[in-house]
Design goal:
about 250 residues, 6 helices, about 25% strand
Length: about 250
């Protein structure tokens, strides 16, 4: 049977995964609460652990680089000191090394882990020129559970495409929260109900829910996510992730 994955929830979309011998950080955000004037975004809660606690990172998976709620100032500083960052080609073009941009279905091997970039769409198709590209990731390693990381993609259609091409997974890390930014109040990330649908489509045995708190433009909370999973009869899939606490994810 696949061994356990460990997750430490830090806040917002940020979590540390321990997987197949690697320490993998997702979408780094480590600023204290503040308002980002240019982006019009407000961070309401600081991280569960400081950036200084992120020792010996092997890899950063960055779904996209252009929004502070996925890469804030302190998170960017930490990211640029990591040995390897996998993200979009646009992130590589703007940030440079150690960022490596990946196109959909491209693979990158780190240790025993194969990371596959997945197609994503950050909200409705009509908003893509405004919000920019986003990527998801799939992790696979011999003897380990397969892991899907959605990033900020909200498209169930593209998720179905990923399952059709690569199959189902054991563990899903889903960015929910139904982020909405005026003047176009459309959900830019998974709603709670769509996150429950995503879990079913992926065939996941366990789900780690991220991107549901700490930012004012997240319109749905952790409680909303838990209710949607309970309504779908999937409440046992959700992993309890206390802030700043390492949790082993057993299948």
């Amino acid at each position: 049977m696949p061994g356990p994955l460990a997750v430490t929830y830090i806040g917002g979309p940020t979590a540390l995964l321990e997987y197949a011998g690697l320490r993998i950080l997702l979408d780094p955000t480590f600023d204290e609460p503040r308002h980002y004037e240019k982006a019009g975004l407000t961070k309401t809660v600081g991280p569960g652990l400081p950036a200084s606690a992120m020792e010996s990172l092997d890899l950063v998976l960055l779904s996209h680089h252009g929004h502070a709620d996925n890469l804030d100032d302190s998170g960017r500083e930490l990211t640029m000191s990591a040995p390897l960052v996998l993200s979009t080609p646009e992130a590589e073009a703007e940030l440079g090394a150690p960022v490596v941009g990946m196109t959909p279905w491209q693979e990158h091997v780190v240790g025993e882990v194969t990371v596959t970039a997945l197609p994503g769409r950050h909200g409705p198709r009509i908003l893509r020129p405004l919000v920019g590209p986003v990527t998801g990731f799939r992790l696979a390693a011999p003897g380990e559970p397969t892991v899907h990381v959605s990033g900020d993609s909200s498209s169930l259609g593209l998720l179905r495409e990923s399952v059709a091409r690569l199959g189902t997974v054991d563990i899903a890390v889903l960015f929910a929260g139904a982020a909405r930014v005026m003047p176009a109040p459309l959900a830019l990330t998974l709603t709670s109900a769509k996150a429950a649908q995503a879990a079913q489509l992926l065939g996941a045995q366990r789900v780690i829910g991220l991107h549901v708190e700490d930012w004012a433009h997240f319109s749905e909370s952790r409680a909303d996510l838990e209710k949607a999973f309970a309504d779908a009869g999937l409440d046992e899939l959700l992993v309890d992730t206390p802030r700043g606490t390492r949790v082993a994810v057993e299948l």
